[in-house]
Amino acid sequence: MDFNAYRKAYFVYPAPEPRYQFQSSFGATLYFEDYQAAIAFYVQVLGPPGYVEGAGTRGWPIGNGWLTLLQGRQGNPQNVEITFELSSAHEAEALQKEFIAAGARGQQPSDQFMYRPVRCCPVVDPFGLAIMIIAPQPFSI
To answer: pLDDT by residue (tens digit) across 10-67?
Structure first.
């Protein structure tokens, strides 16, 4: 299926009027039971956090928002996927390799339609959190 067929199959026309004028997404906050192990994993992949509050909050700037890790008491993030968008397929694949080298599981990168053409480089961190790493792909309409 090409992108035009994809758009015709899945997008609503005319597009519904948005109820709010969102500017962007501020980020994701994740709670981990094994907080120290989660911090160690994300430091290995993303480097030192850009925000440290006491013993229980660490944050990394991701695009125009933040990835924040907090101490959780009952398990780890479940039934959720977070998405990191990078500037190029090369960057997305490099980040995926870094996650896998640190202990995540990953699948082969592939080209997909996710509202637009993207390079997908999925991983699952050692705690079971799904992370979709994507990069825009060129297309013509």
So the answer is: 989 898 898 888 777 789 999 999 999 999 999 999 999 999 998 889 999 998 899 9
The CATH number of the domain holding residue 92 is: 3.10.180.10
d(C-alpha 76, C-alpha 35), whole Å: 9
Phi, psi (degrees; rounded to nearest 5) at 83 = -120, 130
Domain count of the chain?
1
Inter-residue contact 133 to 104 (CB < 8 Å): no
Predicted TM-score (pTM) of the model is 0.88
Mention every residue, 6+ apart, whose C-beta is less than 8 A from residue 39.
49, 58, 69
Cα–Cα distance, 20 to 14 (Å, whole number):
17
Instruction: Give the position of tokens 């480097």.
Output: 47
Domain hosting residue 128, numbered range: 3-16+26-136
At 61, which amino acid appears? P
In a domain, 68, yes or no: yes
CA distance 97 to 45: 10
